[in-house]
Amino acid sequence: MAGMAGMAGMAATTGPVRAAVLGRPGCGRRTVARALHAAGVMVAGPDDAADVDVYVFTETLKPEDRAALSSPPGPRVAILNKADLAGFGGDGPVATAAARCELLQQSVAMPIHPLAALAAVAALDDTVIDGAVLAALRVLTGEPANLGSTDGFLTGAHRLPRGVRQRLLTELDLFGIAHAVVALREGADRAGLAAALRRASGLDAVLAAIGRATAPVRYRRVAEVGASQPVDDAAMAARMSAAIEVVEAAGMAVDRGDDADAYLRRAVLWQRYARGPVSELHRRCADDIVRGSLRLWEQAGGVPEAVA
User: Fold this and answer.
1) How far is residue 258's CA from residue 297's CA, in Å, rounded to a whole number?
2) What CA–CA distance (Å, rounded) separates 36 from 207?
3) Quick check: helix, strand or coil at residue 10?
4) DSSP readout, 238-256?
5) What is the DSSP letter of 84?
6) CA–CA–CA angle 28, 33, 39 (5° rounding)
7) Predicted confidence (pLDDT) per residue in 258-305, tens digit
């Protein structure tokens, strides 16, 4: 049976989760869906069943948004898209959007995450920053243009043709152009440029939120697969790994130590947790953490009779 370090991804054999991207017209659903797809998330089609709803809105929550977010409970992630348009004061637009998310999420009792989806797509889709776009961005590193407004960038005097500047705005908008120019000035290559745009976009926080929201889905799938197969070390490891994701998604810490003492501590702690006033899902997860940890402890030389 693999130790804790070797368990990540063992539950992937149950298949990917599907995300439905929802929201009012004009919120950028297609761009968000494109970014998620490029990041490896399976985006559900109009007629597909989804495991998690990714609800997209812009600027602020309108009554329709609040109604959608308060609909019957289920795995759901809320995204404030076009975070790059939140204003350039303070620490930048995404930081401003994040502060707005903190205020808005109090009224819907769920986390909201800022996202600059256009920058995320540019970071992940190789067809966006092609040779022509990259060359134009390199020109801007030595010959700055007016990035104060779209009109200023498009109509101001500059040797880049207007058509090229229009394409930069379409593919990256001012936010992406500004971050790309800074990255290139600092010596980034193409991969470094993509990494800078990804960091600026807020995508990784959104992906982490989707992972947390779907942890129970993945756990149930692993448990269902395991119920029809012999309980061997691999199955036990997969169930423990998926169970750990569930409780960590709920905000609890799991000791991921990879030695005999850590295995035993983890087993004892989660055995106590399972006996407390917890939900059925968390009780089952705790039981799987206990079983997996004790099995690892035995393999490390522990004596089963010592823990009754």
Assistant:
1) 10
2) 8
3) helix
4) HHHHHHHHHHHHTT-----
5) G
6) 130
7) 999 999 999 999 999 999 999 999 999 999 999 999 999 999 887 665
241: closest CA among 18, 12, 19?
12
Calpha distance 163→9 (Å, rounded):
45
Residue 188, exposed/middle/buried by CB under 10 A (0-12, 13-18, 19+)? Answer: middle
Which is it for strands 18-23 and 112-115: parallel, antiparallel or unpaired?
A: unpaired
- 4-121+201-209: CATH topology is Rossmann fold (3.40.50)
CA distances (Å), origin 211, targets 17, 53, 54, 218: 9, 12, 12, 9
d(CA 129, CA 133) in angstroms, rounded, equals 5
* Among 112, 250, 94, 100, CA closest to 176: 94
Determine the Cα–Cα distance for residues 303 and 248; give it in Å rounded to an integer: 29
CB–CB of 55/68 below 8 Å? yes
- H or E element: which one contains 214? helix 203-227
CA-closest candidate to residue 51, choices 5, 97, 20 = 20
Residue pair 57/24 in contact (Cβ under 8 Å)? The answer is yes
Give CA separation, 197 vs 139, 172, 193, 203, in Å: 18, 9, 6, 10
Write out the two tokens for 77. Answer: 């992630």
Secondary structure (3-state) at 78: strand
Task: Find how far residue 281's CA is from the centre of its chain.
Answer: 23
pLDDT at 234: 86
Say whether 156 sits in a helix, a strand or coil.
coil
Residue type, 180: A
Q: Which tokens in the block code for residue 279?
A: 């939900």
In this model, does residue 306 exceed pLDDT 80? Answer: no
Q: Where are the domains of the chain?
A: 4-121+201-209, 122-200, 218-306
Examine the pLDDT at 43 and tell me if it is beyond 80: yes
